[in-house]
Amino acid sequence: MKNKKAYIYSRISPLADHEILTYQEKILNQLALDLDYDIAYQSYSISYSLLETESLLNEIISIIQGELVDALIIWSPLRITVSKDLYEEIEMLCEMHHIQIISYKNN
């Protein structure tokens, strides 16, 4: 049986205390372990939206399209983007490639 693999993505705004990023990463890493996921990829950004870091967005999309993970673990949908349209497109892309989005705020 193959191990489940996860991509963990964290984000804070440039105005936030950097300790929040450390806290967010700690919680998401623990969530992955609690759900028996191996952490295959992990990234973060300090920006107002993932849209500001286009190369990171492209990396996440490539990993999803390549089906290199089984789950995308995030703090909440707002950590991916404040744009509902973009979040829904990422959500649909994950669904198309059988990748579960796990949001800490929904657990």
Gross morphology is globular
- Measured between the Cα atoms of the first and last residue, the distance is 25 Å
The CATH homologous superfamily is termed Resolvase, N-terminal catalytic domain
CATH topology: Rossmann fold
Q: How does CATH name the architecture?
A: 3-Layer(aba) Sandwich
Count of helices? 4
What is the H-and-E element order? EHEHEHHE
Which radius of gyration do the C-alpha atoms yield?
A: 13 Å
CATH class, please? Answer: Alpha Beta
* Average pLDDT reading: 91
Number of strands: 4
Number of domains: 1
Q: Which secondary-structure class do the elements indicate?
A: alpha/beta
Main pleated sheet: 4 strands, parallel
Largest sheet, spatial ordering of strands: 2-1-3-4
Task: Give a verbal description of the structure.
This protein has 107 residues and is an alpha/beta fold. The chain has 4 helices and 4 strands. The protein has one domain (4-106): 3-Layer(aba) Sandwich (Rossmann fold). It is 43% helix and 25% strand. It has a 4-stranded parallel β-sheet with strand order 2-1-3-4, with helices on both faces. Strand 1, helix 1 and strand 2 (37-46) form a beta-alpha-beta unit. The protein starts with a strand and ends with a strand. The mean pLDDT is 91.
